[in-house]
Design goal:
The chain is an alpha+beta fold and 813 residues long. Among the domains are: 98 residues; 158 residues, no CATH class; 145 residues, no CATH class; 108 residues, Glucose Oxidase, domain 1, CATH 3.50.30. 44% of the residues lie in helices and 13% in strands. The protein has a seven-stranded mixed β-sheet with strand order 15-19-18-17-16-20-21, sandwiched between helices. The protein has a six-stranded antiparallel β-sheet with strand order 9-8-5-6-7-14. Strands 1-4-2-3 form a four-stranded antiparallel β-sheet, sandwiched between helices. Strand 8 and strand 9 form a beta hairpin. The two termini are 45 Å apart.
Length: 813
């Protein structure tokens, strides 16, 4: 070995790099090392072993591959060659380790993936085994595949081993912006300082670094290599990326200030707490999706519908905000809107601050705030659960006042539920009638961009008033129903079997869809009739680029080989003894009605929620098609239109002069601007929950708590939605379907008999949760980034809903 002034990765092995680094690093260390070639070991293993004994007289050692094939500029071959850890310095053990390393070199020659100097000239690297490891892992000096300016640290802080991250057994992750004040974070300060020193030594290189941090805080470097995956990727303009982050920090600071009519000292942002935008429109939606969702739901209808039921009126308050093209829910506005209207303001202030603080401490609850953080109605567990408030500064009088307000709100809704539902279903019927009338009128009119956009605008306005509003109210009733049902189960008034059988017995539009698909496949229903009823659905309700069922030919592919199954008709009658026990419980708690009334309410609420959603999505789908038609007449395809914002498009529903060139120019400007912004923000990583300004610089995804549906356990091969999209035939039987997000447009999946379903986003009361419960399909809904990304890399997955686990299996299952 010899020292070089400069290190060229093209001609350097792992051992060469570490030997070059060892005398140069000041903020980290490289363990003592010894290197020999395979040829020397094969010819004189005894002598080599004596030299190892002399070099490492105490402690334990590691023996590692060191090949020119594994750390190059064009490919890392990370993990391909063998390393053996924690060895005693015994000849038999070192001989076996060397044999394993040499065999991995020979395997590369056998399978034709070699290309190095030949096995004889490859190296065996021996080092001291690092002890007392607190954290180990891998850090990339830029985000893989984008070169975004973040230190990406995949780490293990539990096992005390050094191979769990590279072996895929462990892997928490944190993204630390290059612009973060690293000195302010004690946990990562030493590592970042060491990494920056390595960046200085390897000027211009994007690095992949294996490291450990000992209990004493010492940073140990095990390997440094170029991040080959980033070799041909352009480097973003770091100064501009810094500017974008700083602007978002200022924006968050503004939104965190006091709001006069809302309780809560500050706010928390999350991508799932209320109306679940990441589930419905995606984590980084297209501009049209986002602005359509704002217009239809989150600008004002969301709180108008809620306050009409007796909740606090938060007007004016927009629910959804955008940071870096990512949608977030303003938790302060949401949490205020879930408090009873007649509650004293001082108590609302204490309560909202308590809720926000609990979310800060438990960000994994963000997709289940209504079950884990908030009290939004009174059920049979509420009185017990409210006692926790006494530990957080609430007096007995506070708790009693809040309990009475919740009970009064809940009883009012229960008492009026039939009237509310009758009114809402009339509104939904009116939506259908108005939409059909508008579309018939459009069919007779001249086909111009203006007529198409004017018609779309009319449908969307009707959708807000007669679709979103009643759907929102029915969704609230469905949540109250689910709360009562869960509390009955937990109070052991009904059994676990009763709980699942009851949910499975509720027939919704999804049941009808499945039965109609069965009839279609068996010649009992013609295709035109089926399309007339369900053709508006699309896998991505707000996504103009996703084809509707009526233009998705492969929806019907594979009918002969994958027949849908008619869903059995489940008759469900609660035993009289159960109803009497519910009667007693309702009387004890002062809840309006009796057991039969409550059962009817729960069944009706779940069914009507889905009915309202179905008609709501039909109007939305028709409006998107009209926008696509207008865009086509103006020279824009769907892939372009998805980047335009809805307000700009709708400017031209009533043009003063019908100037096509002007409309084309303005819409193109919107498309170009939003596409450019999307490119800018590709270099920005954002967390699912934003608590403080720090979260824009230190992004650490939490491990979510999935919502498990049914009590079943299954094992099967994973299939992702991206794979499904490119299949000529949708063959899902026996597969576990992995989806980022899911809405009514994914209902066709249930006709293909999947083994199970796993989603990244979604709550216990989400559309997909209800569907899976209805069909008895095991599911893990809302797994979050960490679990979901791990499953994506797996071939086989075990989904055990009874034990509430979902985990990847190796290829041998």
């Amino acid at each position: 070995m010899h020292y070089r002034n400069n290190m060229d990765f093209r001609f350097s092995s792992k051992a060469d790099v570490l030997e070059w680094l060892r005398p140069r690093v000041k903020h980290s260390c490289v363990e003592k090392l010894y290197v020999c070639t395979v040829d020397r070991w094969m010819k004189d293993a005894d002598t080599v072993f004596r030299e190892i004994q002399k070099e490492f007289p105490e402690g334990r050692i590691v023996m590692r591959s060191s090949s020119l094939q594994e750390d190059g500029l064009t490919g890392s071959r990370a993990g391909y060659f063998k390393s053996v850890l924690d060895l005693p310095v015994l000849f038999s053990r070192t001989e076996a380790a060397a044999a394993a390393i040499i065999d991995s070199y020979k395997r590369a020659e056998r399978d034709g993936t070699g290309g190095g100097p030949g096995t004889d000239r490859e190296q065996i690297l021996v080092q001291s085994q690092t002890g007392n490891i607190r954290v180990s892992g891998v850090v990339f000096t830029r985000q893989i595949e984008t070169n975004a300016p973040y230190y990406v640290i995949n780490y293990d802080d539990r096992s005390g081993r050094t191979d769990t991250v590279t072996g895929g057994m462990e892997g928490k992750v944190i993204y630390i912006s290059h612009f973060a004040d690293a000195s302010s974070d004690a946990r990562w300060r030493g590592l970042i300082r060491a990494v920056k020193e390595l960046e200085f030594l390897f000027k211009g290189a994007v690095l992949d670094i294996e490291f450990a941090i000992t209990g004493e805080g010492k940073v140990v470097i095990f390997q440094v290599r170029p991040l080959a995956a980033n070799r041909d990727i352009a480097m973003p303009e770091d100064g501009f990326t810094r500017h974008l982050i700083e602007d978002m920090v200022k924006k968050f600071s503004r939104f965190s200030q006091r709001v006069p009519h809302l309780a809560g000292e500050t706010t928390v942002l999350g991508d799932m707490p209320d109306w679940n935008p990441s589930e419905i429109i995606g984590s980084r939606p297209n501009t049209l999706d986002y602005t359509m969702y704002s217009f239809i739901v989150t600008d004002e209808v969301w709180h108008e519908a809620r306050s009409s039921l007796g909740y606090y009126d938060v007007y004016p308050a927009e629910l959804m905000l955008s940071f870096g093209k990512k949608p977030y829910i303003d938790a302060r506005a949401s949490f205020n809107s879930f408090t009873p209207a007649d509650m004293p303001h001082e108590l609302r202030e204490k309560l909202v601050n308590y809720y926000l603080d609990k979310l800060r401490k438990n960000p994994a609850y963000q997709d289940k705030v209504e079950f884990e953080i908030l009290w939004t109605c009174y059920d049979f567990l509420t009185a017990k659960k409210l006692n926790i408030l006494s530990k957080h500064g609430f007096s007995s009088a506070d708790i009693d006042t809040f309990s009475k307000a919740l009970k009064g709100l809940t009883n009012s809704i229960l008492k009026d539920s039939r009237g509310i539902t009758e009114h809402d279903l009339k509104q939904v019927k009116l939506l259908t009638e108005r939409r059909d009338r508008i579309m018939r009128f459009y069919g007779k009119s001249d086909k111009t961009p203006w007529n198409s956009l004017h018609t779309a605008y009319g449908i969307l306005q009707n959708c807000k008033r007669f679709g979103t509003f009643p759907f929102s109210r029915q969704a609230r009733l469905a949540f109250i129903a689910k709360s009562f049902l869960i509390s009955l189960r937990k109070e052991e008034v009904v059994s676990e079997e009763f709980y699942h059988d009851f949910l499975n017995s509720i027939r919704t539009v999804a049941s009808e869809f499945n039965d109609d698909f069965y009839r279609l496949q068996n010649g009992e229903l013609d295709k035109d009739s089926f399309i007339g009823q369900y053709g508006h659905l699309r896998a991505g309700t707000y996504d103009i680029t996703t084809p509707r069922y009526d233009s998705s030919s492969n929806l019907f592919d594979g009918q002969a080989d994958a027949k849908a199954v008619r869903r059995p008709m489940y008759g469900f009658n609660a035993p009289k003894k159960v109803l009497k026990n519910i009667d007693k419980l309702m009387e004890l708690h002062g809840i309006h009605g009796n057991g039969a009334y409550l059962m009817d309410f729960m069944r009706s609420a779940v069914r009507n929620r889905e009915c309202a959603k179905f008609e709501f999505t039909r109007s939305l789908s028709d409006a998107l098609e009209l926008i696509a038609e207008a865009g086509k007449m103006l020279g824009f395809d769907r892939e372009q239109l998805c980047h335009a914002d809805l307000p700009t498009i709708m400017k031209f529903r009533n043009p003063e002069h019908g100037d096509s060139d002007y409309a084309r120019k303005i819409i193109k400007q919107s498309i170009d601007r939003h596409k450019k912004e999307r490119e800018w923000y590709d270099a920005v990583i954002l967390p699912p929950v934003i608590i403080s300004e720090r979260d824009f610089y230190y992004v650490e995804p939490y491990e979510a708590i999935p919502n498990f549906i049914t009590r079943k356990s299954v094992k099967g091969r994973i299939i992702t939605f991206d794979e499904i999209k490119h299949m000529k035939e949708h063959v899902l039987e026996g597969r576990i379907v992995l989806l980022e997000n899911a809405d009514p447009g994914f209902d066709w999946i249930f006709t293909k008999r999947p083994l199970g379903i796993v989603t990244k986003y979604g709550g216990v009361a989400s559309h997909m949760s209800i569907r899976c419960a209805e069909f008895g399909i095991p599911a893990a809904i809302g797994c979050g980034d960490v679990i979901y990304d791990g499953l994506k890399k797996a071939k086989l997955v075990e989904l055990d809903c009874m034990r509430k686990t979902v985990r990847p299996l190796n290829s041998h299952g």
